[in-house]
Design brief:
Elements: H1 2-7, E1 15-16, H2 17-25, H3 30-38, H4 53-65, E2 69-72, E3 75-78, H5 80-87, H6 101-104, H7 108-126, H8 139-150, H9 156-171, H10 173-180, H11 193-200, H12 204-224, H13 230-240, H14 247-255, H15 261-268, H16 272-285, H17 301-310, H18 320-326, H19 332-344
Helix pairs in contact: 2-3, 3-16, 7-13, 9-10, 10-12, 11-12, 14-16, 15-16, 16-19
Length: 350
Amino acid sequence: MKYFILSCFKHGYTVRYSTLYHLLTGKKTASVLVYGYFYAVLDYFKLFPKLDESQFNQYIMELSRNQLLQLNEQHVTITPKGLDLLTSSGYKQLELSHLSSLTYHRLDNRFWQRLVLTTQVYSEQAYGHTMYLPVETSPFRLVVFKKWYQSQNKMTAIAFRDELVSLMSTIGELESYILVSQFSGHKHTGQTMTQLASELETTQLAVYLEFKNRLHQLLTLITKNQINFPVLTNILTDEASYLPVDTVDKTAEIYQRTQSLSDIAKIRGLRESTISDHLIELAISSNQESDILKIYPFGHLDELNHFSKETVVDCRNWDYQQLRQKINGLSFNEFRLYQIKQIKEGKYGE
């Protein structure tokens, strides 16, 4: 775990290490999300919701004692020795290119539990078995599944099987193994993370990270190819319907009608600062088609563009108070959104 934490500082900037802890455990504030976006660790959001803070701090201190991190009060910078370790042949850096925890952290585990249960039920059904212990133990989730199951027709089981086979084939036989091996069915019990780690001769952490990586790949494939996966899309939609409505999504809907912070705050009954935080999250998480920055009314765009061209300082290190002295009336919200805009466009200022 400590080397995974070390890898989160490979960007080379001096940063507050407690913010990384808040990101890994899922503290969803604008400052935490901006940190994740600025330093390319946003995909790790809420990967470890139960990570103990004292244990995390011990990892930081140990990395510092081993001269892999340079510690300065509450801030750390990775050292040349730390970078060398991450690039050495003795350290296996996992390729987690499909991980997207900010997008899927509310739904991924729920969907996976449903997928495992559905696989078991249809497998037992194929053999005419009705007396077995379901892999799901939550009474509520069993009721939710039963309601969905009873609404399906006889062809759903076949379609579900075909879609799942097609999906895993798209991911790849070796790549999907960490998912498929956890499925249970008729006279077959899926493996645990511990068993997989032993079989693959790796750590449970590596198995967990690769599992999340492939699960998010699976979710992305379903979301982008709903026509090809109607049953899996239906399951995903059904699970999502039980989630509380995200307050940021409500702000996004209103933002399409008006870009006034005060108007949105009045409609939502929230503070303007809260709406500002919502816009920052939306700017970070939105894709090219739904990017709110396209319609955000920058009031000082020319001045900000001029400053960006003149400065040699990386935009992630800009100081709001200093910049406000140069640009009269610049709000913190506009300042932060412009930084995000610059990074999205690959204009870091150096």
